[in-house]
């Protein structure tokens, strides 16, 4: 199940489970409710074919694309690692699309380009349009219908002409069961369909999307850093609390996205020079911004001395200065460990030095004019950015009742270790010629969700330094 954040993937599962079940896995906002891969077993759906083994049916819910915290690259890696670690094959891809947008945004078009780049055969793709139940008024309905036509006749035209399906999900159990039950299973996809190999066309797209996120995070972090510096001279406790919290969040996001960049062993095809430049840019920005922040504190303390400000604020700033010195030393050492700058990149010449005695509580020596306090002081380097051997129809009884049990986190064996802990209602089988028989009984949740982000940004620097040292 793939799609942007808020496109209705989790709502589809909740509707399939029925109104009596409280999965509470759907929500709203810019952050995906689903942060990790979650597996849902449909106990009453068994895919079977004459003279072949019966198979259980699972739905795999994935984190939403365009998430404010998680890059598309990180999501695809989660999917690939899940499939590899669980030894499971994927038969069908459900792509969810919110139909209520005034027009199809560029971010969604990029997501569609990523999915198409994986070269999934058309018959294994279902385009599920959602939010039809949120449409009110003739104008909104017409806009939604126009979006649907554009998806069908333009964006997904080639795939639909080759047997991909596009449907309308009405956010009801009956609609979910109808879509699920009418899905055609045409055999499993390639095991490495989501592997970012050299010949995978999705690789460069995901790489550029990650670089865009890094650039956006850096700009946001540096903007908040300037706001924090301004508060030294114009204190505002309430605003300071917001700025500090937002700055920590921006730094965490930046560290997470950069960790994805460090996982690359080699550049995607055609982008060989960009990878090293992007890594150097990150280390350079860390050194420049920490130096800028350190120098700003020194200047503020100097002004306090001339104006004889109260000792409490001066003492607080001195403590902040000690931490800033440590951050700058670490950032500069990491940049030096990287080695010479790549071709076309600017070298970093520090304007301040901190000796061991200085770090213990002495002074800061200015070697040359400090980094300008203007909004453009923190420089940014722009980084460019199988043949179908068997098919089957799944049919579902619309009047069937369902129930859901939440299970412990998944074990290594995905198929054998998931069981319904509630009493099992009678099975209902449907036979269709030499196709599959489907037994519908219950939907079971298996979840191994992990939440939260690292709080110690410094650890990221140490890990990077160790990685560079090993290399």
Automatic annotation (TrEMBL):
Transmembrane segments annotated in the record for this chain: none
Xref: InterPro entries: GTP-bd, P-loop_NTPase
Recorded superkingdom: Eukaryota
GO molecular function: GTP binding
Domain G as annotated: residue spans: 2-80
The protein's name in its UniProt record: G domain-containing protein
Annotated organism of origin: Panaeolus cyanescens
């Amino acid at each position: 199940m793939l799609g942007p954040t808020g496109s209705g993937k989790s709502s589809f599962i909740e509707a399939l489970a029925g109104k009596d079940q409280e999965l509470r896995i759907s929500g709203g906002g810019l952050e995906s409710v689903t942060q990790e891969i979650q597996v849902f077993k449909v106990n009453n759906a068994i895919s079977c074919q004459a003279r072949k083994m019966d198979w259980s049916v699972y739905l795999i819910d994935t984190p939403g694309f365009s998430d404010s915290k998680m890059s598309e690259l990180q999501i695809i890696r989660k999917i690939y690692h899940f499939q590899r670690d669980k030894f499971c094959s994927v038969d069908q891809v459900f792509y969810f699309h919110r139909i209520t947008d005034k027009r199809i945004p560029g971010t969604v078009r990029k997501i569609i380009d990523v999915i198409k780049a994986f070269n999934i055969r058309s018959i294994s793709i279902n385009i599920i349009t959602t939010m039809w139940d949120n449409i009110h008024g003739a104008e909104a309905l017409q806009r939604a219908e126009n979006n649907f036509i554009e998806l069908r006749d333009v964006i997904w035209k080639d795939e639909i002409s080759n047997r991909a399906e596009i449907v309308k999900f009405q956010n009801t159990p009956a609609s979910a069961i109808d879509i699920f039950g009418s899905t055609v299973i045409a055999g499993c996809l390639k095991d490495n369909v989501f592997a970012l190999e050299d010949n995978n066309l999705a690789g460069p797209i995901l790489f550029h999307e990650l670089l865009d996120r890094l650039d956006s995070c850096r700009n946001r972090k540096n903007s908040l850093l300037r706001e924090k510096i301004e508060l030294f001279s114009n204190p505002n406790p309430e605003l300071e609390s917001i700025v500090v919290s937002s700055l920590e969040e921006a730094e965490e996001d930046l560290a997470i996205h950069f960790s994805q960049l460090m996982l690359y062993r080699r550049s995607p095809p055609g982008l060989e020079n960009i990878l090293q430049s992007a890594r150097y840019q990150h280390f350079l920005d860390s050194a420049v911004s920490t130096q800028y922040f350190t120098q700003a504190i020194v200047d503020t303390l100097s002004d306090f001395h001339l104006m004889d400000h109260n000792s409490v604020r001066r003492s607080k700033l001195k403590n902040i200065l000690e931490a800033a010195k440590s951050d700058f030393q670490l950032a500069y050492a990491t940049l030096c460990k990287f080695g010479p700058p790549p071709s076309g990149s600017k070298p970093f010449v520090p304007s301040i030095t901190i000796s061991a005695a200085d770090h213990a509580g002495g002074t800061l020596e200015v070697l040359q004019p400090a980094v300008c306090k203007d909004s453009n002081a923190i420089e940014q380097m722009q980084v460019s950015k199988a043949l179908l051997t068997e098919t089957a129809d799944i049919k579902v009884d619309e009047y069937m009742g369902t129930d859901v049990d939440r299970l412990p986190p998944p074990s290594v064996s995905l198929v054998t270790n998931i069981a319904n802990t509630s009493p099992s209602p009678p099975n209902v089988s449907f036979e269709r010629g030499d196709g599959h028989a489907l037994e519908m009984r219950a939907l079971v949740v298996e979840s191994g969700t992990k939440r939260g982000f690292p709080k110690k940004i410094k650890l990221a620097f140490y890990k990077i330094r160790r990685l560079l040292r090993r290399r």
